[in-house]
Structures are given as C-alpha cells and as structure tokens.
Design brief:
The complex is a heterodimer of chains A (114) and B (113). With 114 residues, chain A is mainly beta. Helices cover 0% and strands 51% of the residues of chain A. Chain A has strands at 5-7, 10-14, 19-24, 31-37, 44-49, 55-58, 61-65, 71-76, 85-92, 103-104, 108-113. In chain A, the strands form 2 sheets. In chain A, strands 2, 4, 5, 9, 10 and 11 form a 6-stranded mixed β-sheet that branches. In chain A, strands 1-3-8-7-6 form a 5-stranded antiparallel β-sheet, with no helix packed on it. The chains are: A mainly beta (114), B mainly beta (113).
Chain lengths: 114, 113
C-alpha cells in the first residue's frame, strides 16, 4: 500500500511570510498532484508534476517533484489571507489501470493571518 | 464548460435506508472516480469507472456499496442499508481518457441518523 505523509499538519503564519509544505513517501509515483480544498467544497487541482526534478510555478506558488519521484514540496512566497485553506498532495502509482487510483496525503491546514 | 456536478449536496438517511449519490462528469470526460472523506481523515479512493465498466473497485467496502457508470446518464454510488459509520463526504472526480489529472465535484455530505 502506497502512503503519502504530509507535513506539517497545521501551519499558522502572518501575511507576507513564506512557507513550505512537504509530501513524502517511500514509494515511487508516476505523477503527483497538488490540490486546495475549501470547507464544504471539493478539492481544486493546482498542478500536476510528472518528471523527477520537475519544478512548476503558479504565481507565488512553486511546486517541486523529487528526483526519485517519491516526494514533493509546495512553497508559497509572501503568503496572503486568500491562501488560507487545506492543501492536499495526491500521487498516482501509474501503470495499467491503477493510474486512476490517487493516494492522498492527510493534508496541511494553512491559516494566513492579516 | 460546467465542472463536475454532484447531487444531492446534502443527504440525510436513517439507519437501514438506501443512499444514492449521483455524479455527472465534465463534458468530454469518460472516466469517473469516487472518493470518501471521513471526519478527521483524508480522502480515500473507492472506485474507478469508465462507461459501462468498473476498472478498479479495490477501495470499495465488500458489502452494501456498489457503483455504476451507465452508457447514458450520471454515475451512481449506491449504499444499501446505511449505518452511522457511512456518514462522510463523498466526492466524485472525472478525467479525460489517458489523463492523470482528476477534477473534483463539490461532494455529497451524507449523514446517517
């Protein structure tokens, strides 16, 4: 069974600070996705990374996939209150029909105070 | 382009009743996935379907739960004889054929009383 460990579980920071969320596993994933979820809503896809070492940027968000495709990080620069939410990483094992079976991390609850 | 649609958004059932959750994928998406989010737990995969075909149901409880994605109409997740432990948020996601990205609906919150 593939597992994804996300850390930290909770993060409370002031507006303007930088932060990093980590997603780690002992298993290799063919791709990894990051989502953001608001209370009472479904997860919204932020990015997909597929290549080991890949870095993708989305405005103030930077996503990195580890060289061995076992871990990923999400870095937010100059956080804003609008960044508040639950951040989830999800890995796809790939191969055959199993690529549709995403394994999710437990999530990081981010609170950015004005 | 409408997103993934789920209904109802909230469903209350008494123990022993049946719950039917519906999911309409995004236009052009032929793959549907169901996930369950229990209180204080993360999202857990339940089942992966294509039209008229179950691809992977390894996350489905062996009893009382079933899913279908007919040729016409929405995908249905059916829970028979619900128990309190079935109370959770159930999310549907869809993707185009061959894509790894999954797009989620707003979820159905099931409460069993």
């Amino acid at each position: 069974t593939q597992l994804l460990e996300q850390s930290p579980q909770f993060l409370s920071i002031q507006e303007g600070e930088n932060l990093t969320v980590y997603c780690n596993s002992s298993s290799v994933f063919s791709s990894l996705q990051w989502y953001r979820q608001e209370p009472g809503e479904g997860p919204v896809l932020l990015v997909t990374v597929v290549t080991g070492g890949e870095v993708k940027k989305l405005k103030r968000l930077t996503f990195q996939f580890g060289d061995a495709r076992k871990d990923s990080s999400l870095h937010i620069t100059a956080a804003q209150p609008g960044d508040t939410g639950l951040y989830l990483c999800a890995g796809s094992p790939g191969g055959g029909t199993s690529y549709g079976k995403l394994t999710f991390g437990q999530g990081t609850i981010l609170t950015v105070h004005p | 382009n409408a997103g993934v649609m789920q209904n109802p958004r909230h469903l209350v059932r008494r123990r022993g009743q049946e719950a039917r959750l519906r999911c309409s994928p995004m236009k052009g998406h032929s793959h549907v996935y169901w996930y369950r989010q229990l209180p204080e737990e993360g999202l857990k995969f339940m089942v992966y379907l294509q039209k008229e075909n179950i691809i992977d149901e390894s996350g489905m409880p062996k009893e009382r739960f079933s899913a279908e994605f007919p040729k016409e109409g929405p995908s249905i997740l059916r829970i028979q004889q619900v128990v309190r432990g079935d109370s959770a948020a159930y999310f549907c996601a869809s993707s185009p054929r061959g894509a790894v990205e999954q797009y989620f609906g707003p979820g159905t919150r099931l409460t069993v009383t």
